Amino acid sequence: MKLVFGIIAGMNVLLRHVVGAMLGVMVVTVTIQICVRFVLPKAGIIVAAPWTEELARYLMVWCIFLGAAVASRSGALIAMDSVVDALPARLGDATRNFGLLITIAFFALLVWLGVRWVEFGTVETSTVMAMPMAWVYAAMPLGSAVAIINILALMVERHFQRRSERRAAQAAAEEAAASIV
């Protein structure tokens, strides 16, 4: 089990770096676009760079899906925890797991729809860069599949953590009961 968690952790570290690099490229691309649109015309230089807007948009799509996948490993997706935290421990855990199962079902739907979009995108190209849209659409099924893996790992990790906490509490209670006698 530790090997599986280690592989998942390594995958998430790699994806964090990939998302960070994509964000860096987006910043550079948008900076170029701003210079081309607003700075260079004031200097009398008229240049067009339509690829910058398209590249930034497609990188943003990838960042959203991969970033959501990485965030799902730590349970950092948007959630209403106040209700779950107010419930008794077992009921709160069951409610949280039910919510995670619904989230898995949603991401499974995105995988299914995303694969269909990728198939559709094989015959479509982007307007300016003329790249196959399948590369852009692949962000949805790939990111969603990684999110499912991360949510399942989170659920398993929480299960073992709760079980060890219950054992520790039971051992402490037994020790306290033994010391009274």
Architecture overview:
It is a single chain. By secondary structure, the protein is mainly alpha-helical. The chain has one domain. Helices cover 81% and strands 0% of the residues. Helix 1 runs antiparallel to helix 2, helix 2 packs parallel to helix 6 and helix 4 runs antiparallel to helix 6. The radius of gyration is 23 Å and the shape is elongated. The two termini are 40 Å apart. The mean pLDDT is 92.
Regions with pLDDT < 50 over 5+ consecutive residues? none
Distance between the termini: 40 Å
Percent range for β-strand residues: under 5%
Overall average residue pLDDT: 92
What's the number of extended β-strand segments?
Answer: 0
Q: If helices are DSSP runs of H or I spanning 4 or more residues, what is the number of helices?
A: 6
**Structural class by SSE content:** mainly alpha
User: How big is the Rg?
Assistant: 23 Å
Chain oligomer state: single chain
* Portion of residues within helices: over 70%
What overall geometry do the principal axes of the alpha carbons give?
elongated
Query: Order of SSEs, N→C?
Result: HHHHHH
The largest β sheet comes out as: none
How many domains? The number is 1
Layout of strands and helices, then pairs:
Elements: H1 2-39, H2 51-73, H3 81-86, H4 89-121, H5 133-137, H6 139-180
In short:
The chain has helices spanning 2-39, 51-73, 81-86, 89-121, 133-137, 139-180. With 181 residues, the protein is mainly α.
